[in-house]
Design goal:
By secondary structure, the protein is mostly helical. Helix content is 72%, strand content 0%. The protein contains nine helices and no strands. The longest helix is centred in the middle third of the chain and has 15 residues. It starts with a helix and ends with a helix. The relative contact order is 0.07.
Amino acid sequence: MTDDWSTRLAAAWADDALDDLQRVAAIDVLAAELPEGDARALFERAGARDSAGMEGEAEPLYRAALAAGLDDELRPQAVIQLASTIRNLGALDESLALLRAEYERDPRSPLHDAAAAFYALALVSSGDAVRAASIALTALAPHLPLYTRSVTGYARELVDPEA
């Protein structure tokens, strides 16, 4: 994969003149430039379909991309996007398991807050809005200009009133 390929991929994602199906087609053309079964190509094809509301087509592509071995930058994105997709398709338990594992994997990960956001959404879908609020507030707290410690404490108390 070259810098030129990545630049053209970014341009396809950023091109507001493309409708969803045109973007899927453009990304498929770019993906076809990579070897068959390439993890990045599978991931981009999945993301294009997911973005276009074609979750049923995106799911197997995400799974194939993960099985093919995405790098440390793309793997968390694929897990989050797959989990969100399958939540929308009704596989809530698997979605929760994937998101919880990603959320708990590395608190210093650049996508930790994104994992928290999607984990919170899945928790709400499961009926556990209190835990969802705790996860979301815990992710938000470090970004507040004031009250980080207070919000962190309140978030913890939501799920453990004796904390």
